[in-house]
Amino acid sequence: MKLSDKNEIETLPAENTAQKESSTKLSQSETEHRTFLMVSEKLREYERKRLSYRKYGTLFIICSALVFLALMFSQDLKVLFLILWIVTIVFCVALMLRADYMYDMYYHMIHFEESPQHGHEEKEQENDTKEEK
């Protein structure tokens, strides 16, 4: 094997890796589109979670209140059951707040405006100021 043959063999894999890297690199618009799709999917996921947490979280808080009240008044460990009841309520509310926060964060990423809860209030204020003028 000649020295020139070795050089040709060594350059071929380098050229192939450069072609692979350029083909795997995405353009900026493709990257933005993939990011938008990912954020949209997360928005839908947290919207579902938010709605189910509101529905079942509130129901769970009410049911846990009944269970812990029954245990508190039937057992001698009243303080323990009161503490467990408070911890359960705080945990449920924390889950519900996290789902609302994540939904609001992803909503802002996609829509670049106020959240849907606050947008309605601002429109009412704008209408009131227009009517006063």
Short description:
With 133 residues, the protein is mainly alpha-helical. The protein is 90% helix and 0% strand.
Overview features:
90% helix; 4 helices; 133 residues
Describe the structure.
The protein has 133 residues and is mainly alpha-helical. The mean pLDDT is 78. It has a domain at 30-110. The chain starts with a helix and ends with a helix. The longest helix is centred in the middle third of the chain and has 47 residues, at 28-74. 90% of the residues lie in helices and 0% in strands. The protein has helices at 3-24, 28-74, 78-111, 116-132. It is built from four helices and no strands.
Number of helices: 4
Order of helices and strands: HHHH
Sheet having the most strands: none
Instruction: Detail the poorly predicted runs.
Output: none
**Strand content range:** under 5%
Shape: flat
| Helix percentage range | over 70%
The end-to-end span amounts to 92 Å
Overall residue-averaged pLDDT value: 78
- Assign the structural class, choosing from mainly alpha, mainly beta, alpha/beta, alpha+beta, or little secondary structure: mainly alpha
User: What is the strand tally?
Assistant: 0
Calculate Rg over CA atoms. 29 Å
What secondary-structure arrangement, pairings included, does this model have?
Blueprint: H1 3-24, H2 28-74, H3 78-111, H4 116-132
Helix pairs in contact: 2-3
